[in-house]
Amino acid sequence: PLAPRHQFAISRVIDIPGQHNFIMPNTEKRAPLIIAVVAASVLMLVMLSSGGKSSLGLGISPRSSVRSPRMGRMVLTRANAGRKFFVGGNWKSNGDRGSIKSLIEGLNSGAPVEEAVEVVVSPPAPYLDYTRQNLRKDFAVGGQNSWVTGQGAYTGEVCPEMLKDIGCEWVILGHSERRHLPDIKESDETIAAKTKYALDNNLGVILCIGELLEEREAGKTLEVCERQMLAVADKVKDWEKVVIAYEPVWAIGTGKVATPEQAQEVHDGVRKWLNSNVSPEVADKTRILYGGSVNPDNCNELAGKPDIDGFLVGGASLKPDFLKIVDSYKHAAALA
């Protein structure tokens, strides 16, 4: 029997030939409920009539923001799933010994961070060891790239074992600059192979995905992200040390930022894809970062979205103000 608060006062039973009997509730006290049901039905019809396009034109089906496709299971929120906020700083090919020394001193001057946030900075390869020796110990250090295998005759490459040897805990793989710069052009398969080998050697991987402007305008945002993730899913079974960074290529270093609603919708779609194609547990636990002109002025609003679990920061990570972006975890925690 239903609990009293869910019971309806029954007025009559309608017998429709060829159909199940329908129990009609006493509508005098249930009018608000009936109105809500009708409104929800109308909204669903409108969504279905839109041809599967989201209001943001990203080619995301309506179900991506409603319910995961696997057995109708709802994906857990960040707080319920225990996803620790994550802020990464990608210094790219910037700096020299003097400027990196000053940056480290500025970062070291900040207040200690709490257990609720994980912070990783990724200097250029020649300064990784120096950074690890001098940077505050509550910040981790990661590489910006690693090779598909171990040591050998691979001139110019850095293997995961070397990164581990100097104290690195993470590596950035699949960044759009390595995917799209004409002199590099790493394929999805190469990035997947790098990811697997790094994970096999106990390095955490910040796996970057994201679409070009023309792909976004064609409504292929999720199609591109899913293709990039599928290459990794074909090789990787344990996702515990994978953090996904969604970086729309058109927003990286341009000053253009996806709105919080646009970013949230893509993150939601990525999490639903993980739920269907990897596992519900991976979908719940995997942190999905946003990257693309994140700065102290926009980080709090972005951090307030339920599927944005942190940031991968480029240019703004080269300034002491990076600490303000790190502090956005407090805003996220307050809204959790």
Offer a quick outline of the entry:
This protein is α/β, with parallel strands linked by helices. It has helices at 31-49, 78-81, 97-108, 128-134, 160-165, 176-180, 188-200, 213-217, 221-233, 260-277, 280-285, 299-303, 322-326, 328-335, and strands spanning 10-14, 22-25, 85-90, 117-122, 140-143, 170-173, 204-209, 242-246, 288-290, 310-313.
Description:
With 336 residues, this protein is α/β, with parallel strands linked by helices. Helix content is 38%, strand content 14%. The protein is built from 14 helices and ten strands. It has helices at 31-49, 78-81, 97-108, 128-134, 160-165, 176-180, 188-200, 213-217, 221-233, 260-277, 280-285, 299-303, 322-326, 328-335; strands at residues 10-14, 22-25, 85-90, 117-122, 140-143, 170-173, 204-209, 242-246, 288-290, 310-313. An eight-stranded parallel sheet has the order 9-8-7-6-5-4-3-10. Helix 4 links the parallel strand 4 (117-122) and strand 5 (140-143). The chain starts with 9 loop residues before the first strand and ends with a helix. The model is unreliable at 1-29, 45-57 and 60-72 (pLDDT under 50).
Widest sheet: strand ordering: 9-8-7-6-5-4-3-10
Percent of residues in β-strands: 5-15%
SSE series: EEHHEHEHEHEHHEHHEHHEHEHH
Radius of gyration: 24 Å
Task: Label the overall shape.
Answer: globular
| Poorly predicted sequence stretches spanning 5 or more consecutive residues | 1-29, 45-57, 60-72
Percent in helix: 25-40%
Q: Mind describing the biggest β-sheet?
A: 8 strands, parallel
Structural class: alpha/beta
**Average pLDDT for all residues:** 84
Note the gap between the termini: 35 Å
Count of separate DSSP helical elements:
14
Number of beta-strand segments = 10
